[in-house]
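In response to a reviewer's request, we include the raw inputs and outputs for one of the modeled complexes. The two entities were modeled together in a single run.
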Amino acid sequence: MTGGYLKGRIRREDILTAAVAVYGEAGYHGSSLREVAKRAGITHAGLLYYFPTKEALLAAVLERRDAEDAEREHLGAPPGLEVLRNLIALAEYNVAHPGIVDLYSRLAAEAVAPDHPAHDYFVRHYRLVRTSASESFRVLAGRGELRAGIDPRVAATTFVALMDGLQVQWLTTPDEVDLVATLRRYLDSVLA
Amino acid sequence: MTGGYLKGRIRREDILTAAVAVYGEAGYHGSSLREVAKRAGITHAGLLYYFPTKEALLAAVLERRDAEDAEREHLGAPPGLEVLRNLIALAEYNVAHPGIVDLYSRLAAEAVAPDHPAHDYFVRHYRLVRTSASESFRVLAGRGELRAGIDPRVAATTFVALMDGLQVQWLTTPDEVDLVATLRRYLDSVLA
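The model returned the following structure tokens for the whole complex.
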């Protein structure tokens, strides 16, 4: 790794961190590249060198978050119960970081529109998480560890929807919803 | 009912219908009372007579929607399996009206902030739906119709979260998510 390359990577990371902070305060639509540059302590032209558009910056923020989540929670473990438990551990991490959950929930709801800059990201994201959960439920089914009548694909869609829906419900009435316990109860309820 | 009162009610309904159309196109934040008045064919001052603020109009739109849903789908039926099935029928109605689902999902995600004009509405809304579903699951439990180990309150939170999460997932990838079938499967999976 050359010094210049390393410096570029650090700068890129600083910009992404600044973007998360600005989105958290002003929302994605209410934010500007100029504001993110200011927060990151670089010039607007300097930021444009790394991220030529607002959309490119948003995509990089979301993808960095997924990569960090996958590494921290070992989401790439072999399909099976561990992956599903690690997704619950991710939810537990998110509960301790409500700002991230808030940003993600809003973006997911806005990005259902095909012309939204994060639409393609969410299409890919949902496919990836559903496929991963589905493979894990299938492995459980193959070992006779899934309750009779539970379809692995339906359980995967349910599990992902439950994570998303619980986040909004919990953010709205935090004292009335135990997000992590509810997810655990769902997982337990489909195991044989 | 006097003629003047009736005329006022009709005018009020026209404004609410216009508001739903404008929110659907521009989003709540991107809309203005002036635009809604124009769509409803009345003056700005005329609209202010019925709804003095943007927030008051939003609250009335959401409450009218709940009242319409409750009446059409008989959500006020005595607690039990019928209420839960009627909530699934409501989801089926929503699938045929994606504009409503889109508006609702976005607002729910934005309104987690305590200072959002629809925050109090969503706090009340979630409490009401959770309580209603919870009572219905409890009636099933009392009749031995709920699977052993299923807690009525947890099942209610799960059911509501599932409706919300499935809506966003379905709007993002409509061909890959069967919203109504997934809800039905969940309900079947907790019945004895």
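As requested, we also summarize the result in words. Chain A has two domains: 1-52, 58-190. Residues 58-190 of chain A form a domain with the Tetracycline Repressor; domain 2 fold (CATH 1.10.357.10).
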